[in-house]
Amino acid sequence: MVFGMTDENKNKNHDDDEEDIIDKAIGKFGKWQFQLSFILALVNIPCTWHIFVPTFHGREMEVWCARPPKFYNVSTEIWIDKTQPNDFCTTNDTSNASLDPLNNLVNVSRNMVDCKQWEFAHDGSTLISEFDLLCDRKSLLNMAEMFFLAGVAVGGLICGIISDKCGRKRTLLSCCAIAFVPYFELYCALRLMLGFISVSVVFSGFVLSIELVGGHWRTVTGICYLFPVSIGYCIISAMAWFLRDWRHLQLAISAPGLLFLTSYFFLPESPRWLWQQEKLINVYLVYYGLVLNLENIGGDIYINSVLTGLVEVPALAVSIPILIKKGRRWPLALSMIISGIACAFIVPFKMFSSTHQWVITTFSMISKMCISSSNAIMPVFTAELYPTTLRNIGVGASNVAAGIALMLVPYLFELKTIEKTLPVGVLAFCGIIGGLSVLFLPETGGKPLQETLNEKVAESRRASRASQAVFS
């Protein structure tokens, strides 16, 4: 009796054949992949700086309503004490005030007027001090960050479309070329551009890094790709400590990006993308060519920034063996839920105690560590859910919802004016609900990357039939 192959077996064999061809052409992991993955990961560092720099661009400084020229000789302590009993947004009317022989301020009216100009402590320059983003203009600082996050939301989707049409490398390097142009005169507009560029660089680099390797090395390189993010947090904290002028800091974080432009000449195109473009010959040319030519918890802002970066290191390191052994879905769900629970524990301490800052910081770091693990798992999981022909579009589209949520982040912390525990309470709720929702997604761990939409559909049908068989 002769048995013919079923469509299911044909599809499975076709998947395995394509996977074997690509793996034989480039190898699953070697010196070549290590070097390129390392370079791609380093590109994350300047992107991280641009994402995180608003923390220092808009840092709070000691401020008071400016003294009129005739009162420059009055000390700041006396000026604040005599004219600003409430805050620096309003001041006592000093139009009829004068100085006595001892330079004391007298005849200060009790009528309050709005402050129009401010003086700042000599601690560098920020967006707040340069553009007077105080009082009724305070919301403009949030608006500038919203522009950046809007660029993140749009960039993830559009970059995916461009990258799937033109290849990962060209998109990645063109984004790097634009990311470091001067943008001080049009801060908000160019923050929008930087948001678009930063997420495009990160996504294109991530997809390229996992498509350069095979097998379980996709998990390893996907997680390791994010290690420079934590390093970037620590570095920019140190840079911001020494460079207190926001313009100098911006120049410092932009300049290193120019070095990565040279990588255009030795970064390969994604071999899986080339396969889909019927350019398998380029796989061998790329391989041999490169082998032969061989990135508001309280306390001190700078210390917290360093801690934020440091806790990501163990989170990322632990994620690698967990993802290899336990898959994607449950580790992602649990890390998000634990992060939410840690945020929930912060609420009573912020509500009933003002002397346990160390407890709040500890739970904040636990939450940050868990969400960092989630952040490492999420792109690997998301990328594996889509076939190669749609992977960048899929990852980008998935980022749109996240981008919209990010646009609301600057305003989330304004909820503290209603109730100081409300922002962290919202984060706790989102973490727990988000973790539970992950359980409804399919597991992708240990399965080969699908190359075409037809293969993905066939796989989904096989999974559906398997599920029906289990419950029938």
From TrEMBL:
<feature type="transmembrane region" description="Helical">
    <location>
        <begin position="424"/>
        <end position="441"/>
    </location>
</feature>
<feature type="transmembrane region" description="Helical">
    <location>
        <begin position="393"/>
        <end position="412"/>
    </location>
</feature>
<keyword id="KW-1133">Transmembrane helix</keyword>
<dbReference type="InterPro" id="IPR036259">
    <property type="entry name" value="MFS_trans_sf"/>
</dbReference>
<feature type="transmembrane region" description="Helical">
    <location>
        <begin position="192"/>
        <end position="213"/>
    </location>
</feature>
<feature type="transmembrane region" description="Helical">
    <location>
        <begin position="34"/>
        <end position="52"/>
    </location>
</feature>
<feature type="transmembrane region" description="Helical">
    <location>
        <begin position="331"/>
        <end position="352"/>
    </location>
</feature>
<dbReference type="GO" id="GO:0022857">
    <property type="term" value="F:transmembrane transporter activity"/>
</dbReference>
<dbReference type="GO" id="GO:0016020">
    <property type="term" value="C:membrane"/>
</dbReference>
<protein>
    <submittedName>
        <fullName>Uncharacterized protein</fullName>
    </submittedName>
</protein>
<keyword id="KW-0472">Membrane</keyword>
<feature type="transmembrane region" description="Helical">
    <location>
        <begin position="301"/>
        <end position="324"/>
    </location>
</feature>
<feature type="transmembrane region" description="Helical">
    <location>
        <begin position="249"/>
        <end position="267"/>
    </location>
</feature>
<feature type="transmembrane region" description="Helical">
    <location>
        <begin position="279"/>
        <end position="295"/>
    </location>
</feature>
<dbReference type="InterPro" id="IPR005828">
    <property type="entry name" value="MFS_sugar_transport-like"/>
</dbReference>
<feature type="transmembrane region" description="Helical">
    <location>
        <begin position="146"/>
        <end position="163"/>
    </location>
</feature>
<dbReference type="Pfam" id="PF00083">
    <property type="entry name" value="Sugar_tr"/>
</dbReference>
<feature type="transmembrane region" description="Helical">
    <location>
        <begin position="225"/>
        <end position="243"/>
    </location>
</feature>
<feature type="transmembrane region" description="Helical">
    <location>
        <begin position="170"/>
        <end position="186"/>
    </location>
</feature>
<keyword id="KW-0812">Transmembrane</keyword>
